[in-house]
Amino acid sequence: MIDSKAGSGTSRREILGLGVGAASLLGGLGSAHAQTRSAVPPQKPRGQVIAGISQEPTVFNPLMPGSEVDQGVWWQLFNPLWSIDPQGRLVADLATEVPSVGNGGLSADGLVWKIKLRKDVKWHDGTPFTAEDVKYTLDLINTPGFRVRNRVGHSLVKEITVVAPDEIHWRMESAYSPYLSILALTFIVPRHILEKAQDPNTAPFNSAPIGTGAFRWGERVAGDHLLLQANPTHHGEGPYLERVVFKYIPDLTMLYTQFRTGQIDYLGLSGISAHFVKEAQGLRGRKLSLSPTAFIEHIALNLEFVPFADKAVREALYLGMNKQARIEALYYGLPVPTESFLPQQSWAYDSSLPAQRHDPAKANALLDAAGWASGSDGIRQKNGVRLEFANSTTVGNPGREQSQQLLMQDWRALGVAMRINNMPGAVIWGEFWQKSKFESVMVGSNFMLGNDPDVTPRFSSKAIPAKAGSGLNTYQYQNPEIDRLLAEGASQFDQAERKATYGKIQKIIRDDLVLLPIYQTVMAEGIKDGLQGFAANINCSSNCWNMRSWFWAS
Amino acid sequence: MTDATGLIDLADTRAGSEHKSAWSRFRRHKLAMAGAATIAILVLGSFLGPYLLPFDDTHIDVMHRFAPPLSGAHVLGTDELGRDILARLMMGGRISLAIGFTAMAIAIAAGTGVGMIAGYYGGIIGSLLMRFVDAILCFPTIFLLLALAALVKPGLLSMTLLIAATSWMNVARIVEAQIRALRDQDYAVAARAMGASSFRIMWRNLLPNAVASIVVAATLNVAKAILLESYVSFLGYGIQPPNASWGNMLNNAQIYLSSAPWLAIMPGLAITLAVTSFNFVGDGLRDALDPRMEIS
Amino acid sequence: MIPFLLRRLWQSLILLAIVSMIGFAILYLAPGGPMSQFAQSAQMSQEDLDRIARQLGLDRTLPVQYWDWLLRMLSGDWGRSFRDNSPVWSVIGSHLRATFELMAVSTLIAIALGCWIGILGAIRRYSIFDMVATVGAMVALSIPTFWFGLIAIYLFSVQLGWLPAGNRQTIGDGSFLDVAHHLIAPALVLALVETAIWARFMRSAMLDVIGQDYIRTARAKGLPEQAVLRGHAMRNALLPLITLAGLQFPTLLGGALVTETVFTWPGMGRLFLDSVEYRDYPVVMGILMFSAVMVLLGSLLADMLYAVADPRIRMG
């Protein structure tokens, strides 16, 4: 399980140059791209793709709480006003253009938004899409009884007015730059359908959705698969496939086996486990796409836990961690070592952070100097506190369990005793994590808000749930300087200024070692030969974002 | 999975053999003797073996992962973290066998206690207790185990308790039936007339008659507990690293089935061997002690 | 018969009430909860989680929630799944067919194969066949089913490519042959343990009957051995099997859970596992109640069939 709290896994990369690094990482997909250029999509939708996934999509109302797997389905059924392409550019979808100060869509103070919509869009049932649907969607999100995912940004929207069927205006309560990214992940739902339901939480729509997307609802066999049919009246590109099937295969080994035996055409969303990657690269008739994701694997430390409150301990632990062995041996060199909480593809990523070294001698010296003396059993202690703690993660994750056991051995060499205390997902991510009842946790998180580097919910002192704050600062990190910088970043609209602000934030977080970063996750997805059009997109919550452009080479 | 083995004894009335001592009857049961010998070897190997090996079961050596068996110093090869498989198999045996025996002991104690009270007192207490037993038996074992396992923190103690919690009911049923049949027999009535306390009657007069059935149930329970441990591990809620158990070794190995099959084969064989042995011993004991014969 | 049935029905209802209380208590008293499913999957703050918990009614006390659940259950409303928001009975219903398909086929295999092995073993007691069958049955009872299944997939799907590595059918192809092709491996794996149980049971039932007086009488009368076995022994030995068939249900359901997991079979077992993982209380409770009802029905049916088959048994 990956902790995907920052949800939708996106990073806007408006500086095009940064996209190059990502493209070179696509490695195995180079040939696929070459073929994309030479092959031509069919005139009429043809054939089907079976996408194998390890979690079952169950939530089909795109405004309700859903996993990345659910989002992979939403991308086919619905459209946002605009979306973000693999290069990080905002591309208009239901809107005719992305609002900016330049085109008059945004007022200079960022408070007034004016959106123009396409006129040629129809819902799957034939009803035309209008500005009323957009208004309804935003209103529904802010309806008190509705089980919405969250209202970040949306709650600032006031005075929504439908100017014309293809134009909508609103005013923001305060300037909020990340809202552009949030809307890129907000799918518009049909007013004429949902309005009829007594309770939108249990509307029939939620289990047989109607959208504007390239595919429409086919059938769902619970526990097995979900079938979507081509929508021939789609307003944008495609679809070129007659059907798309999301096949649920809960076991990762079985998922890979079925990819290997050819029962599934595309293995995505959860990806191929690292230990199969080498073997998968040698499979005939299969291609592998290695694409970086926004998930940063790290050790989350509870800073209120006595030993971790001491910065020397955190530094020593970081020096004592054999990152390289972990990445090379346990993960077969797949992930990228990192020092930041932002993915390297983000425009705000700071590449000048000091690189970690594995230096047990220096770590030991640090601990000695800080007064942590070795006890009779070889475990250090200071003022009666033993340097001993538990590390937790979700049970049943072989990679993490191996990594934990290696950490145990790494840190034992420093006179630090680490225990493994793993729990089922439903236990660990409940109060244990939310209310900071852990000592340390091994977790992969996407820190960004939408695709914006605003990390206020993660590091602001007002975002500590254990201290009645609103947010996800489960580290319980408090730093007035960070608070100031976070407020500054969220109110800036100039990208260069923002990059400087978030650069400073990354430096402070790295220096304070609020968390011990391990690596940026790289996902290996499998594609059957002949399947064209796949394009990894770190800015979207799912690499299934563009299935409308997928097709089989004839 | 072996739920139904308990059923078999209901029908398994062996044609009456001549009255010899239970031990000599047991000794004639070749498979049971083989089972007993295997168990002895497994127990000795698990508890003494690790002292004879030059390898520590938790020492990680990432440079020497996946060494095949018989390819060097490691007789059975190394696992996904370069640890000696033989050492882990032995240490895993300790945990798996310990869970098996402890869970059995707890299940027997709880089952006997409940069965004895329900059988002796009967009436409302008895039927309340037995309806509770029936209700728990309504859950398929794996369902119950899973529902419980997903809710507690996995660990040695919790695993043992979980398995015990899902396997004491059959014992309670057996004991209850026996005690109920015996409580009105002459000697129990006589003991009561002489003023013996209820507990004393149960403990001294009634229980010894049920011992044969309990011993058989106990043996089969060990087998079941070892198997259940592997199931819970397979479903992801077993013993946590770095400790090894046969179940979690098997669980960790399944992803390497195609690249390093020996990782999965060794613990799988160990489990099958141990469980088969206990089942055979249980069978032999049943033949030797045939409870019905002792009662009449 | 009628009073017997009424009494059994009454007892079953009491049992079901206890079952529901135990199930409810286990689920709702445990740490964690359905909220962490949401916490994991989207960017949601503690406030959002608390709000949704309130909207689902999870902030009420346990007895209140139980009472509410019980009343709804009695009025036929099993609640809605926390995962996909559809009614629990439809969630269960949609998984039921796959499980019953698997269970029916493997039971048929097991009964046919098990009875054959058992009868032959009893007739040729202590023969090589009997010895091998006895040891084989015990090993089959002792093998971890999932391990056996994994090895079967590795051999027959990955290495040899003869059988599909799981799934119920090729998507878009629901033909009989395709379904049968997918059924072979999981049905055989699930049938392994069952066959062993039936074989052992049948063997001892046969031995039991063969030792009875009327068989000896029949033999003494000079009836041919075949006729003795077929006419007298087998018919009487089959009687206890009826009971076994009814009582085997919970074991089979448990075995199906493991087999379904290994072979990606979209049945009840799989559903249960997922629902437990996501703390989908309404569905977990629904499955527990449903399987309890099935177990009780199974044993009731066993008793009734036994009474019908053997007139000596009187119900009262």
In terms of DSSP E residues, the strand content of chain A is 15-25%
Please, what is the average pLDDT of chain A?
86
SS-derived structural category of chain B: mainly alpha
The helix-and-strand class of chain A reads: alpha+beta
| Broad shape of chain A | globular
The span between the termini of chain B is 32 Å
Distance between the termini of chain A: 37 Å
Estimate the global geometry of chain B from the Cα principal axes.
elongated
Number of strands of chain B: 0
Tally the helices of chain B: what do you get?
A: 13
How confident overall, as mean pLDDT of chain B? 82
Helix content of chain B: over 70%
Largest interface: pair, residues per side = A-C, 67 and 55 residues
- Series of H and E elements of chain B: HHHHHHHHHHHHH
Query: Cα-atom Rg of chain B, whole angstroms?
Result: 22 Å
Number of strands of chain A: 21
Oligomer: heterotrimer
Proportion of helical residues of chain A: 25-40%
The largest β sheet of chain B comes out as: none
Main beta-sheet annotation of chain A: 11 strands, mixed
Number of helices of chain A: 17
Can you give a write-up of this model?
The complex is a heterotrimer of chains A (554), B (296) and C (316). Chain A is 28% helix and 20% strand. Chain A is built from 17 helices and 21 strands. Chain A has helices at 19-25, 30-38, 68-77, 131-141, 179-183, 191-194, 252-260, 274-281, 306-309, 311-320, 323-330, 360-369, 398-412, 425-434, 456-459, 480-491, 495-512; strands at 48-53, 82-84, 90-92, 112-116, 157-164, 167-172, 215-221, 225-230, 243-248, 266-267, 286-301, 336-337, 373-374, 380-382, 385-386, 388-392, 417-420, 440-445, 515-528, 531-532, 551-552. In chain A, strands 1, 7, 8, 9, 10, 11, 12, 16, 17, 18 and 19 form an 11-stranded mixed beta sheet that branches. A 3-stranded antiparallel beta sheet of chain A has the order 4-6-5, covered by helices on one side. In chain A, strands 13-14-15 form a 3-stranded antiparallel beta sheet, with no helix packed on it. In chain A, helix 10 packs antiparallel against helix 12 and helix 16 (480-491) packs antiparallel against helix 17 (495-512). The longest helix of chain A has 18 residues, at 495-512. The radius of gyration of chain A is 24 Å and the shape is globular. The model of chain A is unreliable at 1-37 (pLDDT under 50). By secondary structure, chain B is an all-alpha fold. Chain B contains 13 helices and no strands. Chain B has helices at residues 5-11, 22-28, 30-52, 85-121, 123-137, 141-149, 156-165, 169-182, 186-193, 198-234, 246-253, 262-289, 291-295. Chain C is mainly α and 316 residues long. Chain C contains 13 helices and no strands. The N and C termini of chain C lie close together (7 Å). The interface between A and C is large, with 67 and 55 residues.
